[in-house]
Amino acid sequence: MKKQLIVLFLSMAFLSCSNKKKQDDTVLSDKAVVTFVINDLPEAHNFDDDIYISGDFEGWSGGKAPFKLHKKNNQYSISITKKAKTISYKFTLGHWDKVECKINGNPIENRTHSFIKTRDTVLVNIVNWSHPNQKSKASTASKNVHVFAENFEIPQLQRKRKISVYLPPNYQSAKARYPVLYMQDGQNVFDEKTSYSGEWEADETLNEIFDETGFGLIVVAIDHGGDKRINEYSAWDNKKYGKGEGEQYLEFLVNHLKPEIDRVYRTKTDNKNTGISGSSMGGLFAHYAAVKRPDIFGKAAVFSPSFWYAETSFQFTKEQPNHSKFYYLVGEKEGEEMVNGTNKMVELMQSNGFLPEHIHKKIVPNGTHSESFWKTEFKQAVSWLFVNE
């Protein structure tokens, strides 16, 4: 009996130590810091230029002052505290027109870092900087993609934005009307030349769907607002990132852009034939738009939504159930925060009046926070939302 008590005591002591270690690890991880050091730069790099880190942890702004790298003796570095278990990022010269790229000028995939140490250092090699007029970067947009407007007015925000439109292959020869999908981050939707992290290849995918099924879809791609991107794609204020402008941006889509698209093109104007899509912060906005205005957007492709950015989004959603169709996508390699946020939102919707059969959730084990991931899933999302209903 005495021996058994000793064994029991030792076991309890071991468990207590283990639990304490887990708690200590959690505390340490919350204070984790990674230092990025630029180890190598292109030979032609001008050391008078400032370098910035931009990523999902600061809204993919392209270059905010707090994230400018420190420069000493031509050595660039910056320390970032833990924002999420895994972050995605790239380096720029202050704008997405000048972002790190491959030696031939084509985009590289987003870099990622997982916080597994209290203190960590990452050495970074940058082989080239992109340039807006870089000759080696050829346009990859299909012939049925065109620029609708270079400077379309957003009166609610007193800004202007480039709008691009994809038309189905038979648009000119047929008299049919077509459903419409409004996509955020328009720079990355059709063309590698305008993208800063690769393109979705939405035009090639939709041409393929048309060839296989005869289904045609109009896509309206709206460029994001650079350093205003994170604000425009959130309807809620954030203490760290500033005022949310998503409500005004949604009003722009509903009251200004959509009426003009419906006037110019042969569209099916009802909500069952109108969808909205986006990724990351754009995914948060696509979710918000379909919840807020189901009378306009009856379908939403919500890729890697940044629900972590706006905790208020959960209560907002709970209070406004509707019958729109929602397609959620997230990759496990995007980190627990992204996966858990998507799971939480879907569970909340299914138990609070949204139709379970109108909600599709897909979690991909090897999925990353990148255009290369989203483009591979775009066909399935469009098929579920539009083609196979």
Automatic annotation (TrEMBL):
It comes from the Bacteria. PROSITE patterns: PROKAR_LIPOPROTEIN. InterPro entries: AB_hydrolase_fold, Esterase-like, Ig-like_fold, Ig_E-set, Mycobacterial_A85_antigen. Keywords: Hydrolase. GO terms for molecular function: hydrolase activity. Pfam families: Esterase (PF00756). This is Alpha/beta hydrolase. PANTHER family: ENTEROCHELIN ESTERASE-RELATED, FERRI-BACILLIBACTIN ESTERASE BESA. The lineage of its organism: Bacteria, Pseudomonadati, Bacteroidota, Flavobacteriia, Flavobacteriales.
